[in-house]
Amino acid sequence: KALEYYEKALAISTKVFGEEHANVAHIYNSLGSVLAKQGKYRKSREYYQKALDVFKHTLGEETLSASNSYMGLANANFNLDDGALEYYQRACEIRERTCGIDHPSTGNCYMALAKVYSSNMQFDSALQYYTKALTIRESVLTDDHPDLATVFMGIGNVLNRSGDPVQGLEYQSRALIIRRKVFGELHAATARTYQEMGASYQTANDFAEAFGCFQKALEIREHIFPGGHASTATSLHSLGELYAEKGDRQRALEYLTRALDIRTKRLKPTHPQIEQTTQSIRNLKKAEMRERILFFETFHSKIKCD
Asked: Which of 137, 178, 200, 304 is a plausible cystine mate for 160, CB 3.0–4.6 Å?
């Protein structure tokens, strides 16, 4: 419905103001936002680019409106794996000059930059921008605001991936406290926090705590997504990998098979998570086959010796 009404508004505004008008560009930005939420990133990118071109021509590039277009372009490119960093950097530069370095809007931009750096495994830069965002948000938000939890999770995940899961868990635990208070236990954000904490405990070789967190994430996700969901498959996959790491192949295969069943139903055939789980199952079966071969070789060798 939103898309339909924005398209009507675009037709009217274009007729009244012409295509090269800031009002039209704002509608382009709104269309880009709606399309991005629908996962139509290529079409979204087209509208954000149109908006940016108009803003440059009418209001100038050094405006918050143009910065929003750069953010939209960056978000679309990030989801398309097509060079988001440059657009995020440009958006941040504009917001620093127009809004100031301590403005929440600038902090949002720092969060986006941190996410890109993290995905590129540039962990020092990711931590730098997450820390900047945290400083801004702590100055303007209450201690239990969910946006603070988002920063804590970002920092915690980066620390875990960069080899410091113990410190990462400190930040993730702070995020969990906020999310349980604000959203409650049975919420997708709470489940996601347990899932990430499980990954950190696994990195720290604390399998008991990892299992507990993965299990909690799974229970919440099965409760709020009873029909099966991609996030439920993520928890099942993690538990399967954990059982495999502990040497319990039967339980590992059980969880991985359930994960694969959901991913096959919910994701596109080419989605990398399907291959991820398929490969894990394949590795389990290969390991089991090697053990059987070794057993028979040892058994026959013993018979020959006797």
From this structure: 200
